[in-house]
Amino acid sequence: LEVNGGLTLGTALAVTSGGTGVTSLTEGGVLFGGGAGAITASGVLANGQLLIGDGTTAPTAATLTGTTNQITVTNGAGSITLSTPQDIAVTSSPTFTALTATTTLTINQTSGGDPILQLQDAGTNKWLLGFDNSDSDKFRITPLGGSFSATSSGITITADGFLGIGTTNPTYTLDIIGTLRSSSDLYIGGFATTTASTGNIATAGDLTLSGGDINGANSAAIDIGEANSGDITLTGDVVVADDSFLGISSSGGRIIFDDQTTDEIEITSANLGIASTTPSGALGVQGTAFFSGMANFYNATTAFNGVGYGWPSADGTASQVLTTNGSRVLSWATPGGSSLFTDDGTFTYLTATGDDMVIGASAVTGAPFFFDVSAKRMGINTYDGSPASLLELQDNDTGLGS
Fold it and tell me: What is the pLDDT of residues 378-391, one digit of tens each?
Protein backbone atom coordinates (compact mmCIF):
# COMPACT_ATOMS: atom_id res chain seq x y z
CA LEU A 1 0.00 0.00 0.00
CA GLU A 2 1.49 3.28 -1.07
CA VAL A 3 -0.03 6.44 0.27
CA ASN A 4 0.96 9.89 -0.87
CA GLY A 5 -0.53 12.27 1.65
CA GLY A 6 -2.40 11.75 4.90
CA LEU A 7 -3.90 8.45 6.04
CA THR A 8 -6.57 8.15 8.65
CA LEU A 9 -7.41 4.79 10.24
CA GLY A 10 -10.77 4.20 11.67
CA THR A 11 -9.42 1.92 14.35
CA ALA A 12 -6.17 1.75 16.37
CA LEU A 13 -3.33 -0.09 14.70
CA ALA A 14 -2.38 -3.18 16.66
CA VAL A 15 1.05 -3.55 18.16
CA THR A 16 1.63 -6.65 16.09
CA SER A 17 1.15 -4.50 12.99
CA GLY A 18 3.58 -1.91 14.28
CA GLY A 19 1.07 0.33 16.02
CA THR A 20 0.39 1.27 19.63
CA GLY A 21 -2.91 -0.45 19.99
CA VAL A 22 -4.49 2.81 21.30
CA THR A 23 -5.92 5.85 19.64
CA SER A 24 -4.48 8.36 22.17
CA LEU A 25 -1.82 8.60 24.95
CA THR A 26 -1.65 10.60 28.22
CA GLU A 27 0.30 13.78 27.72
CA GLY A 28 3.42 13.67 29.93
CA GLY A 29 2.91 10.02 30.70
CA VAL A 30 5.54 7.35 30.42
CA LEU A 31 4.84 4.53 27.92
CA PHE A 32 5.43 0.93 28.85
CA GLY A 33 4.59 -2.15 26.80
CA GLY A 34 2.20 -4.94 27.54
CA GLY A 35 3.43 -7.72 25.25
CA ALA A 36 1.18 -8.03 22.18
CA GLY A 37 -1.36 -5.82 23.92
CA ALA A 38 -1.69 -2.09 23.57
CA ILE A 39 1.02 0.21 24.89
CA THR A 40 0.10 1.70 28.25
CA ALA A 41 0.88 5.25 29.31
CA SER A 42 1.31 6.15 32.98
CA GLY A 43 -0.17 9.20 34.47
CA VAL A 44 1.86 12.37 34.85
CA LEU A 45 4.44 11.74 37.62
CA ALA A 46 4.43 14.12 40.57
CA ASN A 47 7.58 15.77 41.98
CA GLY A 48 10.07 13.09 43.01
CA GLN A 49 8.04 10.17 41.67
CA LEU A 50 9.77 7.28 39.94
CA LEU A 51 8.41 4.21 38.15
CA ILE A 52 9.24 1.30 40.43
CA GLY A 53 8.91 -2.23 39.05
CA ASP A 54 8.54 -5.55 40.82
CA GLY A 55 9.95 -7.74 38.03
CA THR A 56 6.56 -9.12 37.05
CA THR A 57 3.77 -6.61 36.72
CA ALA A 58 3.61 -3.12 35.30
CA PRO A 59 5.71 -0.49 37.16
CA THR A 60 4.16 1.69 39.79
CA ALA A 61 4.73 5.40 40.36
CA ALA A 62 6.32 5.83 43.85
CA THR A 63 8.75 8.07 45.76
CA LEU A 64 11.97 7.33 47.70
CA THR A 65 11.44 7.04 51.44
CA GLY A 66 14.02 8.45 53.88
CA THR A 67 15.03 6.93 57.25
CA THR A 68 14.73 8.95 60.43
CA ASN A 69 18.11 10.41 61.58
CA GLN A 70 19.85 8.66 58.66
CA ILE A 71 18.78 9.74 55.13
CA THR A 72 16.51 12.70 54.33
CA VAL A 73 14.73 12.74 50.90
CA THR A 74 13.69 16.10 49.44
CA ASN A 75 11.53 15.97 46.26
CA GLY A 76 11.57 18.88 43.83
CA ALA A 77 10.39 19.70 40.32
CA GLY A 78 12.49 17.37 38.25
CA SER A 79 14.89 16.61 41.16
CA ILE A 80 15.40 14.35 44.15
CA THR A 81 17.86 15.41 46.91
CA LEU A 82 19.31 12.92 49.38
CA SER A 83 21.02 14.25 52.53
CA THR A 84 22.14 13.20 56.04
CA PRO A 85 20.91 14.90 59.25
CA GLN A 86 24.44 16.40 59.81
CA ASP A 87 27.65 16.93 57.90
CA ILE A 88 29.73 13.72 57.86
CA ALA A 89 32.64 15.02 55.82
CA VAL A 90 36.13 14.10 57.08
CA THR A 91 36.67 17.74 58.04
CA SER A 92 33.42 17.97 60.02
CA SER A 93 32.52 17.16 63.65
CA PRO A 94 29.28 15.18 63.58
CA THR A 95 27.41 14.28 66.77
CA PHE A 96 26.09 10.76 67.40
CA THR A 97 23.73 9.56 70.09
CA ALA A 98 25.36 6.13 69.83
CA LEU A 99 28.17 4.71 67.73
CA THR A 100 29.04 1.04 67.28
CA ALA A 101 32.15 -0.20 65.48
CA THR A 102 32.07 -3.89 64.64
CA THR A 103 35.77 -4.00 63.76
CA THR A 104 38.15 -1.08 64.35
CA LEU A 105 37.43 2.55 65.23
CA THR A 106 40.32 4.77 64.16
CA ILE A 107 40.99 8.30 65.36
CA ASN A 108 43.73 9.79 63.20
CA GLN A 109 45.19 13.19 64.03
CA THR A 110 46.70 14.12 60.66
CA SER A 111 48.05 17.47 61.82
CA GLY A 112 50.43 15.98 64.42
CA GLY A 113 48.38 16.92 67.49
CA ASP A 114 46.90 14.71 70.20
CA PRO A 115 44.29 12.19 68.97
CA ILE A 116 41.71 12.18 71.76
CA LEU A 117 38.20 11.04 72.51
CA GLN A 118 36.10 13.59 74.41
CA LEU A 119 33.37 12.56 76.84
CA GLN A 120 30.97 15.44 77.48
CA ASP A 121 27.95 16.31 79.58
CA ALA A 122 25.69 18.92 77.98
CA GLY A 123 28.56 20.12 75.79
CA THR A 124 31.11 20.33 78.63
CA ASN A 125 34.19 18.11 78.56
CA LYS A 126 34.24 15.76 81.56
CA TRP A 127 36.81 13.16 80.52
CA LEU A 128 39.39 13.09 77.75
CA LEU A 129 41.28 10.01 76.66
CA GLY A 130 43.94 9.56 74.04
CA PHE A 131 47.70 9.76 73.75
CA ASP A 132 49.84 12.80 74.42
CA ASN A 133 51.88 13.43 71.29
CA SER A 134 53.96 16.06 73.10
CA ASP A 135 55.00 13.68 75.94
CA SER A 136 56.43 10.48 74.42
CA ASP A 137 52.98 9.36 73.20
CA LYS A 138 51.80 8.49 76.71
CA PHE A 139 48.20 7.30 76.88
CA ARG A 140 46.19 9.44 79.26
CA ILE A 141 42.75 9.55 80.82
CA THR A 142 42.26 13.12 81.96
CA PRO A 143 39.31 14.14 84.16
CA LEU A 144 37.53 17.43 84.83
CA GLY A 145 37.45 18.67 81.24
CA GLY A 146 39.67 21.41 79.99
CA SER A 147 42.61 20.77 77.70
CA PHE A 148 44.19 17.38 77.19
CA SER A 149 47.41 17.70 79.18
CA ALA A 150 49.39 16.01 81.91
CA THR A 151 47.60 16.05 85.26
CA SER A 152 48.34 14.08 88.43
CA SER A 153 44.60 13.51 88.95
CA GLY A 154 44.38 11.37 85.84
CA ILE A 155 45.76 8.02 84.67
CA THR A 156 48.89 7.68 82.56
CA ILE A 157 50.23 4.63 80.70
CA THR A 158 53.69 4.81 79.14
CA ALA A 159 54.92 3.00 76.06
CA ASP A 160 56.93 0.76 78.43
CA GLY A 161 53.71 -0.50 80.00
CA PHE A 162 54.02 1.48 83.27
CA LEU A 163 50.69 2.56 84.75
CA GLY A 164 50.62 5.73 86.81
CA ILE A 165 47.84 6.84 89.15
CA GLY A 166 48.42 10.22 90.72
CA THR A 167 51.60 10.65 88.68
CA THR A 168 52.20 11.70 85.08
CA ASN A 169 55.55 9.94 84.84
CA PRO A 170 55.28 6.37 86.20
CA THR A 171 58.52 4.42 86.46
CA TYR A 172 57.10 1.13 87.78
CA THR A 173 54.57 -1.37 86.45
CA LEU A 174 52.05 0.18 88.86
CA ASP A 175 53.11 3.57 90.20
CA ILE A 176 50.66 5.15 92.66
CA ILE A 177 51.10 8.49 94.39
CA GLY A 178 48.43 8.64 97.08
CA THR A 179 46.39 6.18 99.12
CA LEU A 180 45.82 2.61 97.93
CA ARG A 181 42.80 0.88 99.46
CA SER A 182 41.92 -2.77 99.02
CA SER A 183 38.82 -4.44 100.47
CA SER A 184 40.34 -7.85 99.78
CA ASP A 185 43.83 -9.35 99.72
CA LEU A 186 46.71 -7.66 97.93
CA TYR A 187 49.32 -10.05 96.54
CA ILE A 188 52.79 -8.87 95.54
CA GLY A 189 55.51 -10.97 93.97
CA GLY A 190 53.54 -13.76 92.30
CA PHE A 191 51.69 -15.38 95.20
CA ALA A 192 49.42 -18.09 93.82
CA THR A 193 47.49 -18.96 96.98
CA THR A 194 44.95 -17.05 99.02
CA THR A 195 44.63 -16.57 102.76
CA ALA A 196 41.80 -17.35 105.12
CA SER A 197 40.85 -13.73 105.73
CA THR A 198 40.60 -10.62 103.59
CA GLY A 199 42.55 -7.42 103.74
CA ASN A 200 46.03 -9.01 103.88
CA ILE A 201 49.19 -8.01 102.06
CA ALA A 202 51.26 -10.98 100.89
CA THR A 203 54.60 -10.24 99.29
CA ALA A 204 57.42 -12.40 98.00
CA GLY A 205 59.68 -9.38 97.60
CA ASP A 206 60.22 -6.01 99.26
CA LEU A 207 57.52 -3.68 100.55
CA THR A 208 58.87 -0.13 100.37
CA LEU A 209 57.21 3.01 101.74
CA SER A 210 58.41 6.27 100.21
CA GLY A 211 56.22 8.30 102.53
CA GLY A 212 53.15 8.02 104.70
CA ASP A 213 51.99 5.36 107.13
CA ILE A 214 50.63 1.83 107.10
CA ASN A 215 47.34 2.48 108.84
CA GLY A 216 46.05 -0.22 111.16
CA ALA A 217 43.41 -0.37 113.86
CA ASN A 218 42.62 2.68 116.01
CA SER A 219 44.34 4.97 113.46
CA ALA A 220 47.79 3.77 114.56
CA ALA A 221 50.66 3.85 112.10
CA ILE A 222 51.23 0.08 112.51
CA ASP A 223 49.02 -1.84 114.93
CA ILE A 224 50.45 -5.22 115.93
CA GLY A 225 48.76 -7.73 118.21
CA GLU A 226 45.62 -5.75 119.08
CA ALA A 227 42.31 -7.55 119.52
CA ASN A 228 40.93 -6.00 116.35
CA SER A 229 44.14 -6.22 114.37
CA GLY A 230 46.58 -8.88 113.27
CA ASP A 231 50.27 -9.58 113.42
CA ILE A 232 53.09 -8.62 111.11
CA THR A 233 55.39 -11.59 110.68
CA LEU A 234 58.80 -10.91 109.19
CA THR A 235 61.10 -13.49 107.68
CA GLY A 236 63.41 -10.85 106.22
CA ASP A 237 64.61 -7.39 107.19
CA VAL A 238 62.98 -4.15 108.31
CA VAL A 239 65.04 -1.30 106.90
CA VAL A 240 64.66 2.23 108.28
CA ALA A 241 66.07 4.82 105.90
CA ASP A 242 68.31 7.72 106.91
CA ASP A 243 66.65 10.43 109.03
CA SER A 244 63.67 8.12 109.68
CA PHE A 245 62.71 6.29 112.85
CA LEU A 246 60.84 3.32 114.22
CA GLY A 247 58.69 4.69 117.05
CA ILE A 248 56.41 3.46 119.83
CA SER A 249 53.92 6.21 120.65
CA SER A 250 51.60 4.74 123.28
CA SER A 251 52.55 4.80 126.97
CA GLY A 252 52.27 1.01 127.19
CA GLY A 253 53.99 0.30 123.90
CA ARG A 254 56.87 -2.12 123.80
CA ILE A 255 58.93 -4.33 121.54
CA ILE A 256 59.18 -7.95 122.70
CA PHE A 257 61.44 -10.69 121.33
CA ASP A 258 60.06 -14.04 122.49
CA ASP A 259 59.60 -17.73 121.75
CA GLN A 260 63.08 -18.24 120.40
CA THR A 261 66.12 -20.00 121.85
CA THR A 262 68.12 -16.82 121.34
CA ASP A 263 66.59 -13.38 120.78
CA GLU A 264 68.90 -10.81 119.30
CA ILE A 265 68.85 -7.16 118.31
CA GLU A 266 71.64 -6.30 115.89
CA ILE A 267 72.48 -2.68 115.09
CA THR A 268 74.97 -2.39 112.25
CA SER A 269 77.01 0.77 111.65
CA ALA A 270 74.74 2.94 113.80
CA ASN A 271 74.56 4.37 117.30
CA LEU A 272 71.72 3.50 119.72
CA GLY A 273 70.52 6.30 121.98
CA ILE A 274 68.35 5.76 125.06
CA ALA A 275 66.77 9.06 126.13
CA SER A 276 69.28 10.69 123.78
CA THR A 277 68.80 11.90 120.22
CA THR A 278 72.54 12.33 119.61
CA PRO A 279 74.34 9.25 120.95
CA SER A 280 78.09 9.70 120.57
CA GLY A 281 78.86 5.98 120.74
CA ALA A 282 77.37 2.63 119.84
CA LEU A 283 75.21 2.88 123.01
CA GLY A 284 74.35 6.23 124.52
CA VAL A 285 72.32 6.29 127.76
CA GLN A 286 71.13 9.61 129.14
CA GLY A 287 70.16 8.88 132.75
CA THR A 288 70.51 5.92 135.12
CA ALA A 289 71.02 2.38 133.84
CA PHE A 290 70.03 -0.61 136.00
CA PHE A 291 71.40 -4.10 135.47
CA SER A 292 69.83 -7.00 137.36
CA GLY A 293 72.31 -9.40 135.81
CA MET A 294 75.87 -9.16 134.59
CA ALA A 295 76.97 -6.35 132.27
CA ASN A 296 79.71 -7.56 129.96
CA PHE A 297 82.13 -5.11 128.32
CA TYR A 298 84.31 -6.70 125.65
CA ASN A 299 86.13 -3.61 124.49
CA ALA A 300 89.75 -3.25 125.65
CA THR A 301 89.06 0.34 126.76
CA THR A 302 86.18 1.47 128.99
CA ALA A 303 85.55 5.09 130.02
CA PHE A 304 84.34 6.19 133.46
CA ASN A 305 83.43 9.83 134.05
CA GLY A 306 84.97 10.67 130.71
CA VAL A 307 88.30 8.95 131.39
CA GLY A 308 89.05 5.86 129.30
CA TYR A 309 90.99 3.03 130.90
CA GLY A 310 92.67 0.09 129.21
CA TRP A 311 91.74 -3.07 131.07
CA PRO A 312 93.78 -6.29 131.43
CA SER A 313 92.65 -9.18 129.25
CA ALA A 314 92.41 -11.69 132.14
CA ASP A 315 91.70 -11.81 135.87
CA GLY A 316 94.52 -11.38 138.41
CA THR A 317 95.54 -13.74 141.18
CA ALA A 318 94.40 -13.65 144.82
CA SER A 319 95.24 -10.42 146.74
CA GLN A 320 96.34 -8.60 143.58
CA VAL A 321 95.10 -5.07 142.96
CA LEU A 322 94.55 -2.93 139.86
CA THR A 323 97.20 -0.30 139.32
CA THR A 324 97.59 2.37 136.66
CA ASN A 325 100.78 3.30 134.83
CA GLY A 326 99.74 6.95 134.75
CA SER A 327 98.68 6.67 131.09
CA ARG A 328 95.24 5.14 131.83
CA VAL A 329 96.43 1.56 131.32
CA LEU A 330 95.43 -0.76 134.18
CA SER A 331 97.17 -3.99 135.17
CA TRP A 332 97.17 -6.46 138.05
CA ALA A 333 99.95 -6.09 140.66
CA THR A 334 100.89 -7.50 144.06
CA PRO A 335 101.11 -4.78 146.77
CA GLY A 336 104.74 -4.06 147.84
CA GLY A 337 105.77 -5.76 151.22
CA SER A 338 103.46 -7.56 153.56
CA SER A 339 100.56 -6.13 155.51
CA LEU A 340 101.44 -3.43 158.11
CA PHE A 341 99.74 -5.36 160.93
CA THR A 342 99.36 -9.06 161.59
CA ASP A 343 96.47 -10.59 163.54
CA ASP A 344 97.37 -14.04 164.92
CA GLY A 345 94.04 -14.47 166.65
CA THR A 346 95.36 -13.43 170.05
CA PHE A 347 97.39 -10.30 169.41
CA THR A 348 97.63 -7.72 166.66
CA TYR A 349 101.19 -6.50 166.11
CA LEU A 350 103.41 -4.85 163.56
CA THR A 351 104.31 -7.30 160.88
CA ALA A 352 107.86 -5.93 160.81
CA THR A 353 108.62 -6.67 164.47
CA GLY A 354 112.06 -5.08 164.40
CA ASP A 355 110.99 -1.65 163.08
CA ASP A 356 110.63 1.39 165.34
CA MET A 357 107.31 3.22 165.11
CA VAL A 358 106.26 6.85 165.38
CA ILE A 359 102.72 8.21 165.71
CA GLY A 360 101.65 11.69 164.73
CA ALA A 361 104.51 12.40 162.34
CA SER A 362 106.58 10.78 159.64
CA ALA A 363 109.90 11.10 161.56
CA VAL A 364 111.18 11.01 165.14
CA THR A 365 111.58 14.76 165.16
CA GLY A 366 108.13 16.20 165.72
CA ALA A 367 106.50 12.85 166.61
CA PRO A 368 104.52 13.02 169.89
CA PHE A 369 104.85 9.24 170.29
CA PHE A 370 107.96 7.23 169.56
CA PHE A 371 108.63 3.51 170.14
CA ASP A 372 112.30 2.51 170.07
CA VAL A 373 111.97 -1.24 169.63
CA SER A 374 115.67 -2.04 169.59
CA ALA A 375 116.29 -0.14 172.86
CA LYS A 376 112.98 -1.15 174.31
CA ARG A 377 112.07 2.43 175.16
CA MET A 378 109.01 4.64 174.67
CA GLY A 379 109.07 8.41 174.41
CA ILE A 380 106.20 10.88 174.73
CA ASN A 381 106.94 14.33 173.42
CA THR A 382 110.58 13.40 173.01
CA TYR A 383 110.93 15.54 169.93
CA ASP A 384 114.72 15.62 170.13
CA GLY A 385 115.45 11.94 169.54
CA SER A 386 115.47 8.59 171.22
CA PRO A 387 114.08 8.41 174.78
CA ALA A 388 116.83 8.23 177.39
CA SER A 389 114.95 5.77 179.61
CA LEU A 390 112.42 2.98 179.30
CA LEU A 391 109.62 5.57 179.46
CA GLU A 392 110.47 9.20 178.91
CA LEU A 393 107.85 11.91 179.24
CA GLN A 394 109.05 15.35 178.42
CA ASP A 395 107.28 18.39 179.72
CA ASN A 396 109.49 21.41 180.05
CA ASP A 397 112.32 19.00 179.29
CA THR A 398 111.56 16.91 182.39
CA GLY A 399 112.09 13.17 181.90
CA LEU A 400 111.09 10.16 183.87
CA GLY A 401 113.64 7.36 184.04
CA SER A 402 113.71 3.97 185.60
Answer: 888 887 677 888 88
